[in-house]
Amino acid sequence: MIRINDILDKVAFYHPEADLDIIDRAYIYSARMHDGQVRLSGEPYLAHPLEVANLLADMKLDATSVAAGLLHDALEDTRATVEDLRTMFGEDITHIVSGVTKLSRFSFKSSEERQAESIRKMILAMADDIRVLLIKLADRLHNMRTLQFHKPEKQVEIAQETLDIYAPLANRLGIFRIKKELEDTAFKYLMPDEYNGTIGWITKNQEEREKHIEAVREILKKKMGEHNLECEVLGRHKHFYSIYKKMVNQGLDFEELYDIIAFRIILNTVKDCYESLGVIHSLWKPIPKRFKDYIGMPKTNMYQSLHTTVIGPFGERVEIQIRTHEMNKIAEEGIAAHWQYKEGRAGDEQSDRQFAWLRQLIKNQKNLKDPREFMDTVRIDLFPDEVYVFTPNGEVKEFPKGATPVDFAYSIHSEVGHRCTGAKVDGRMVPLKYKLQTGEQVEIILSPRHKPTKDWLNFVVTSKARSRIRQWIKTEERGKSLALGRELCEKEFQKHRLHFNPKSEEFQKIAEEFGFKSNEDLLAAIGYGKITLLQAVRKLLPKSAIQEETETFIDRLKKHIQKKKRPSGILVRGVDNILIRYAKCCNPIPGDEMVGYITRGRGVTVHRADCISILTIDPERKIELEWAEGTREAHPVKVRVSCHNKIGLLADISAAISKEGTNITDVSVKADTSAKQAECTFTIEVVNTKQLDTIIRKLKKVKHVIHVARQS
Ligand code: MN
Description:
The protein is α+β, with helices and mostly antiparallel strands and 712 residues long. The strands form six sheets. Strands 1, 2, 3, 4, 5 and 6 form a six-stranded mixed sheet that branches.
């Protein structure tokens, strides 16, 4: 087991002013909390946090990171609480340890390639402090080093997750040493035969290959010298997993695989780079299409280099990278997304750019006297525009920031979207317009009869949800106007004792005359009110019928037009342009809760929600309605006033009503002589319930008035 003093010495060496005391205290606390726990290897548990802390010290991280490394499993595996940590170690360490703990709670099993990328991004988004990620990687590295103590199934599971998620993350952060070790270890457990085959083959030819490297280097150095090109020539081995992948990708046997070594020529200037390329191409025959100029056209992640493959001195393929010292430094520090370049993957430009500056930060760390300076600047939001959430079965989904449960529902399926009535986030109910946060688990609650509303368009952010909702509303609107159009026509025909057949050839002909493709389109247009009934059906009715009826028809038409102006005060959910009339039975006014009823032939009738007559109507014909905001039209409403039968009282009441700026359009009085009481019913015009309430309140104050109520 590594000793804490070794770690302290290491930190003190690269960071003489470090707060070693906090590392020491973290060690003592961790030792006490993990006391008695053992790892699968039989070692005391403490060995693990110590190894993790040591890896962090190898990465030359600050004292806070090393201390947090010692404590990284304390919240997860011991009785330590967030408050304990905060009291003893302060906000920074607590924040980091909580972050690592949060990540440990997720397991990302069997990840498809596409999922894997979302998960990687989610981890990055959740780790709002880069140190969380570095500790997580160190933790994973030590777990991989001790994977032999797990059961075989567990080994495969952990190794797969490492290969899919953590190795690419290490790579993105430019920590190539960790990336390679994670990959090679995972490779060993996931494909033991291939792993052993690769190692066996490499060791078999080791000596021969080293001679080959030396020979090629010598030639290159000599040639460059002849052209006065001052340079450094390196020949390096690729790591096992990348050699294996190369073999698979290129469909080659080991024996055919020459380019497991990459030569690198590092020069002083860009001009030198192109010159040395010329020298190489005149020396050895280049393989067509293998030349890449990333100096002239740098990758989005700032990687710059010239790449070429040539037929070498022994007839073998030789891969050569040419770059300046500056470019090499950037590539070494990780600005080159090795990940992309090696695996030929087209990357996400935006995240690459973000990682470029991140790596730049990591690089700059080495130039800072106090690593804390650097760490203070890395409270990061790597993906400010995205959120990552889980489905109930652990799949990760990516959304633009501000996405809601409705966006989530539509991302699963449009039917799920249409029927979503609510959502649970981490087990608790949230409104549909709730803004999802990274790391949350989302569950959609469905109701088979539920329908989308226009309102949803105000808060969804994904184009998928938006277009599906629009489409649904359009279809729904069409369905309603179609039914309405058909009913209007049927009614008109019935009046003439004729049978209306919308599928008849005559009707089809009329549809064509109006420029519609189908009879249905014409019916829908009638329903919408785009075409009047008269225009449409006069051509079908006998001439005599039309002449007789012309008067009433025109009257009716006028009424339609008048009615169409009135309903401006009402919004019908999901439907535009529909005929609306107010029910006489209950006289709804703005402010009342209301229900629409799709009548046969007369558009939508609006009732108060508590009107008795709607109890009997077909629920299928009910429609949701809203009052439009700021509507100022006057609506008739009946008010009943009981009062003592006194002379002049009627005038007092009328005066009270008129004072409120309201018209009385009708009044009826019933006097009960024996009780000396009178019952008056006024029909007045009001703009909304608020005005009505004011009038009722005023009437109640009139002398001799006993009771005032709106007639229901
Ligand atoms: Mn751990």
